[in-house]
Design goal:
It contains ten helices and 13 strands. The chain is an alpha/beta fold. The chain has one domain: UDP-N-acetylmuramoyl-L-alanine:D-glutamate ligase, CATH 3.40.1190. Strand 4, helix 3 and strand 5 form a beta-alpha-beta unit. Helix 1 crosses helix 8 and helix 4 runs parallel beside helix 5.
């Protein structure tokens, strides 16, 4: 059980130590726009509902939501991403300032800021339209992104590479960022997508979900086979594979270990799974930065630190899925979830 892998005192100490850590998040930032309203008629122009918009809300999405989760747990993020010279970029910067995060790592490029607009009526999403250009960033622009990444990592305690296939995590950015993180000896947490799935060698934790792993690896991605998951750690050239399995919790395969560790979910009620992965990623990085993980540590030390971080991230995810939309989770909520889980035993 998760609560058997960590004590309450250790949980509280790690959460406290994570406060103030500098976490660099590199990846595809997005602006989420929600248009909410009422539907009481069908358009005379086409057989579609007419939504009378009564509320417009902006939210941080993609890598920006990971940065928001870093803030919620008490750490300090620097978001390195690409934005356009447009209103969406202005809104994104304002949203970062509103949560106390810097926007200094945002690099202006010759493409629009990724914006996803959802039209909602009576709690039902009717339509989503995306404004984006998602090909890989190249040329002088990718060099500026790589430079911004290296500059941010110079004072970082952990690195997150958050990929949404929108072009920020080009090979040059990945390579320079991982090189810089290794020079500092800090943990690297990767949330991958299919385009660059095999480009993150030397990462500390590689964190796909089941669908992403199966899409990239095909039949060899047998999530119930410990040996198969351990083999993927070597194939991906990472320290550990952390596979999120929804209602089945997590599976963790560590390089050099003989077994895969499995952590069951602690969610009491699943209301909405949107954003749970971002919460897990943020907590993994911050707790690794706060704990005993080290690139030069023994296998036992590295494994123990990874399991501690995974257990805490698992509790955080269990809280997040009980909320609506892409929500954040505070350390006090994680401790409360631990207490509830312990009381049930």
């Amino acid at each position: 059980m998760p609560s058997e892998l960590i004590s309450r005192d250790r949980l509280a100490a790690l959460l406290n130590a994570a406060s103030g850590k500098h976490i660099v998040v590199i990846g595809d930032a997005m602006l989420d726009v929600y248009l909410r309203g009422e539907v009481d008629r069908v358009s005379p122009e086409a057989p579609v509902p007419v939504v009378r918009v009564t509320d417009r809300r902006m939210a941080l999405g993609g890598a920006a939501n990971v940065a928001q989760n870093v803030v919620a747990l008490g750490a300090r993020p620097t978001l390195v991403s690409a934005v356009g010279r447009d209103e969406a970029a202005t809104e994104l910067r304002a949203a970062l300032r509103a949560i106390g995060a810097t926007s200094d790592g945002l690099v202006e490029v010759d493409r629009p800021t990724t914006r996803k607009t959802r039209v909602v009526a009576r709690a039902q999403q009717l339509l989503r339209f995306d404004e984006e250009v998602d090909h890989e960033i190249v040329g002088a622009e990718v060099k500026r992104l790589a430079k911004a990444a290296v500059a941010a990592i110079a004072t970082a305690d952990a690195l997150i590479l958050e990929d949404y296939n929108k072009g920020v995590l080009a090979p040059l950015v990945i390579e320079r960022a991982i090189d810089a993180a290794h020079k500092r000896g800090i943990p690297i947490v990767v949330d991958p997508k299919y385009r660059s799935f095999f480009a993150f060698g030397r990462a500390t934790v590689f964190k796909p979900n089941r669908r992403e792993l199966e899409s990239a690896l095909g039949p060899s991605a047998n999530v119930d086979d410990d040996a198969a998951l351990l083999a993927q750690v070597d194939g991906l050239e990472v320290d550990a594979l952390l596979l999120t399995l929804g209602e089945r919790g997590m599976a963790i395969a560590v390089r050099g270990e003989q077994v895969t560790h499995r952590i069951p979910t602690t969610a009491r009620e699943v209301y909405d799974v949107v954003g749970a992965g971002d919460t897990v990623t943020a907590y993994l990085a911050a707790i690794l930065a706060a704990g005993d993980w080290t690139q030069t540590g023994t296998l036992a030390v590295r494994t123990a630190a990874l399991l501690e971080a995974a257990v805490i991230a698992n509790f955080a995810a269990g809280v997040e899925v009980g909320k609506s939309g892409a929500a954040t989770v505070a350390p006090a909520e994680v401790i409360a979830a631990f207490d509830r889980h312990t009381e049930k035993r």
